[in-house]
Amino acid sequence: MLDNEQLQAAASTMAGLRPIPVAVTTTDGTRSNGLISLSGGPASIVPEAPRAMVGITKYNFTHDLIASGGVFVIHVLGNDDDLIDSSIEIIKALGGRSGRDGDKLAGLRVGTGATGAPILLDALSYVECRVTGSYDNDENTTYFGDVVAAARLHRGGKLDIGTAWSRLGSAWTAQYELDHEPQIAHSRSMRGLPSKLPTEEVQV
Ligand SMILES: Cc1cc2nc3c(=O)[nH]c(=O)nc-3n(C[C@H](O)[C@H](O)[C@H](O)COP(=O)(O)O)c2cc1C
After folding, report:
1. 128-159 core/surface letters (b: 16 or more CB in 10 A; e: else)
2. Is 126 exposed, middle or buried (0-12, 13-18, 19+ CB in 10 A)?
3. Nearest protein Cα to ligand 1, atom 12
4. Domain range 17-200, CATH class
5. Whose CA is nearest to atom 6 of ligand 1?
6. Most CB atoms closer than 10 Å: which of 7, 171, 179, 190?
7. How confident is the model at residue 196 (pLDDT cuts 50, 70, 90)?
8. Mutation to probe ligand 1, out of 60, 91, 101 (largest number of atoms < 8 A from CB)
9. Closest ligand 1 atom, residue 183 Cα
10. pLDDT the model gives residue 202
């Protein structure tokens, strides 16, 4: 077991290593959905046959839809003046609640990709992927996929997570942290860990 000092060192080493949020959408043919992730990225060094990867927490609805549908789309969001409000709207719509509780794509401008997966038309650009494999990491699954379609939808730069947090505001962020707690508890249980840290236990 790591002591507190080591836990702090681990957290500070890994904080900020993935600065670009992505909007991940998917469909299993009957339901479409999406979420926000900080774990998207490339999965190949071959320029003419790109692959992408993304890590999805098992608790999330999107996890099950990618598993059954075998497709996912990774969108990056824009930070230019004409796009940033839409980028924040996308994060709020997809990252703040579960698609199990209602259609999160309903309020967004959405098209249909080559695989049938939803394309967010107000994203900066996207890669659309067919799953080639996955890695089960107990609490989450990393999905890998061949890029079967891609497009640049708008001009400008990529939104980073620091800029996004400052625009999302403290009320939204506080609610997000609260909603995140059951995911952390579920992740602990998937790894056979106690559901709360000893320091989180209520003292009576
Ligand atoms: C900045 C940010 C980063 C996130 N990173 C991930 C991630 O890497 N993997 C993941 O599964 N969820 C991640 N989430 C959480 C999901 O976006 C969120 O729980 C979502 O409501 C899940 O929706 P779903 O149940 O409809 O799939 C992130 C959320 C935010 C705001």
Report:
1. bbbbeebeeeebbbbbbbbbeebeebeebebb
2. buried
3. 37
4. mainly beta
5. 37
6. 190
7. confident
8. 60
9. 19
10. 47
